[in-house]
C-alpha cells in the first residue's frame, strides 16, 4: 500500500542546472580599439554637443556658486568620449553625513534609471562650473582623488568658466591629477621638504588634457535656425520682421567698460588676504617647531655632558631617554592650502590680464574713432 502511494506522488523537481556564461571573442578589427584592461592611455577628451548644452544650462541657471555634475561615456582608443551628463543637487544642510548619503542615493537612482532606458551609465568623471578661471579648491582635489582610485583611467574633471561664457567664449577645459601630486596626497606629505623633493607647485597639481567638441547634424541644424533669419513671403515686409525668428543681436562686446573688472580685483584682494593669513599661521607653527627642537637638542647635549663627566668620575652613565616622549615636537605644517591659494591667485591674475587687455583695445579704438 505504501509503495503504491509513493508511486502515485509526483516526483521532486530536478535542481536547475547553472548555465555557464558564454563570452564572444572581440573581432580582430576592433581588438586594437577596445581597451578591456585600460592599457591605452588617454590622449584627449571629446564632449558631445548635448553635454556642452547641459553644462552651460546648469551653470547659468544654478543658484550655487560652483555647479557640478557627473560625466557619462566611455573611452575608446585613447579618446574619452563623453556622451551624457546629469547635474548633482546642492545641499544646504549642515550635516555632512546626511548630505553625502543623500547624494549617493541620488547618483545610484539616476544611474539605474539611465541603465533601464539603455542610456550610457558609465561614470568617466565630473564637471564643475567656476568664475574667472579659479577652480583650485579642496573639494575639487578630494573628488578627483576619489575618482582616480575607482574610475577607469582615473576619470577627468571638465571645468566650465562662466566669466568667459558671458563674453561669448564657451570655455571648457579638461584636467586630471598628476602622478606626482597623487603620490604626495596619498602619503600626506606636503611639507617643505616633500614639495622640494617632488618639485611640486600649484602649476603641477593638474595636467590638462586636450578637449574637443563634437556636434551631430541635428544640433547643427537647430543652431542654424537660431542664427539665421527666415525669409518672409511678402515683398513689403520690414527688415525687423525678417529677423524676428533669429536670436536678438547683442552689442555687449561694444561696451567700453571692462566687464567684471571690479569683481576681479575684489577676488584678488580677498585671495591675497587669505594667503597672507595662511602664511602667518605656517610661520607661527614653524617657529613653534623650532623652539621645541631647540629644547630637545639642548636636553640631549646636556645629558651627553653629564654622561661624559660621570664616566670621567668612574660612575655609570645615565640611561638615554626618548626625546619624543619628553618634548612634543609638532609635525611640519601642511602647505597644500597655501599652494591652492596661489593657484587661485594665478587664475584671477590671468583673468584680470585678459579683461584689461580687451578694455584697453576698446578704449584706444574709441579714442581713434572720436578724434577728428
Sequence-ordered SSE layout with sheet pairings:
Layout: H1 2-8, E1 44-48, H2 49-61, E2 68-76, E3 79-87, H3 96-116, E4 123-130, H4 138-150, E5 156-161, H5 162-166, E6 172-177, H6 179-186, H7 192-198, E7 206-209, E8 211-214, H8 217-227, H9 239-242, H10 261-312, H11 323-326, H12 336-370
Parallel strand pairs: 1-3, 1-8, 4-5
Antiparallel strand pairs: 2-3, 2-4, 5-6, 6-7
Helix count from the secondary structure assignment: 12
Average residue pLDDT: 78
CATH class of the largest domain: Alpha Beta
Helix and strand content put the structural class at: alpha/beta
Terminal CA distance: 126 Å
Q: Label the CATH architecture of the largest domain.
A: 3-Layer(aba) Sandwich
> What is the CATH topology descriptor of the largest domain?
Cytidine Deaminase, domain 2
Q: Helicity, in percent?
A: 40-55%
SSE topology string = HEHEEHEHEHEHHEEHHHHH
Computed CA radius of gyration, to the nearest angstrom: 32 Å
Largest sheet entry: 8 strands, mixed
What is the number of E strands?
8
Query: Which homologous superfamily in CATH is the superfamily of the largest domain?
Result: Cytidine Deaminase, domain 2
| Low-confidence spans | 12-21, 232-237, 239-245
Number of domains: 2
Strand neighbour order, sheet with most strands: 7-6-5-4-2-3-1-8
Amino acid at each position: 500500500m505504501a509503495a503504491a502511494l509513493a508511486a502515485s506522488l509526483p516526483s521532486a523537481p530536478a535542481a536547475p542546472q547553472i548555465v555557464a556564461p558564454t563570452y564572444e571573442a572581440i573581432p580582430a578589427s576592433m581588438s586594437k580599439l577596445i581597451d578591456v584592461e585600460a592599457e591605452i592611455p588617454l590622449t584627449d577628451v571629446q564632449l558631445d554637443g548635448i553635454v556642452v548644452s547641459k553644462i552651460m544650462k546648469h551653470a547659468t541657471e544654478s543658484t550655487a556658486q560652483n555647479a557640478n555634475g557627473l560625466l557619462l561615456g566611455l573611452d575608446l582608443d585613447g579618446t574619452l568620449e563623453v556622451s551624457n551628463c546629469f547635474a548633482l543637487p546642492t545641499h544646504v544642510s549642515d550635516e555632512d553625513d546626511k548630505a553625502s548619503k543623500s547624494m549617493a542615493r541620488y547618483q545610484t537612482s539616476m544611474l539605474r534609471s539611465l541603465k533601464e532606458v539603455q542610456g550610457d551609465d558609465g561614470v568617466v568623471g565630473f564637471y564643475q562650473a567656476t568664475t574667472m578661471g579659479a577652480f583650485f579648491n579642496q573639494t575639487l582635489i578630494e573628488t578627483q582623488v576619489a575618482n582616480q582610485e575607482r574610475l577607469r583611467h582615473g576619470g577627468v574633471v571638465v571645468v566650465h568658466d562662466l566669466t568667459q561664457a558671458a563674453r561669448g567664449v564657451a570655455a571648457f577645459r579638461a584636467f586630471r591629477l598628476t602622478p606626482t601630486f597623487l603620490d604626495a596626497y596619498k602619503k600626506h606629505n606636503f611639507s617643505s621638504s616633500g614639495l622640494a623633493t617632488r618639485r611640486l607647485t600649484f602649476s603641477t597639481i593638474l595636467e590638462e588634457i586636450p578637449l574637443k567638441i563634437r556636434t551631430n547634424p541635428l544640433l547643427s541644424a537647430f543652431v542654424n535656425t537660431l542664427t539665421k533669419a527666415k525669409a518672409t513671403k511678402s515683398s513689403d515686409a520690414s527688415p525687423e520682421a525678417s529677423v524676428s525668428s533669429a536670436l536678438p543681436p547683442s552689442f555687449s562686446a561694444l561696451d567700453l567698460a571692462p566687464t567684471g573688472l571690479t569683481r576681479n580685483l575684489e577676488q584678488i584682494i580677498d585671495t591675497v588676504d587669505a594667503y597672507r593669513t595662511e602664511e602667518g599661521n605656517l610661520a607661527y607653527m614653524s617657529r613653534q617647531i623650532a623652539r621645541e627642537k631647540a629644547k630637545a637638542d639642548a636636553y640631549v647635549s646636556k645629558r651627553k655632558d653629564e654622561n661624559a663627566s660621570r664616566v670621567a668620575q668612574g660612575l655609570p652613565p645615565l640611561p638615554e631617554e626618548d626625546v619624543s616622549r619628553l618634548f612634543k615636537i609638532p609635525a611640519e605644517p601642511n602647505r597644500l592650502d597655501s599652494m591652492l591659494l596661489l593657484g587661485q591667485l594665478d587664475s584671477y591674475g590671468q583673468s584680470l590680464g585678459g579683461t584689461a587687455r580687451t578694455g584697453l583695445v576698446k578704449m584706444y579704438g574709441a579714442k581713434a574713432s572720436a578724434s577728428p
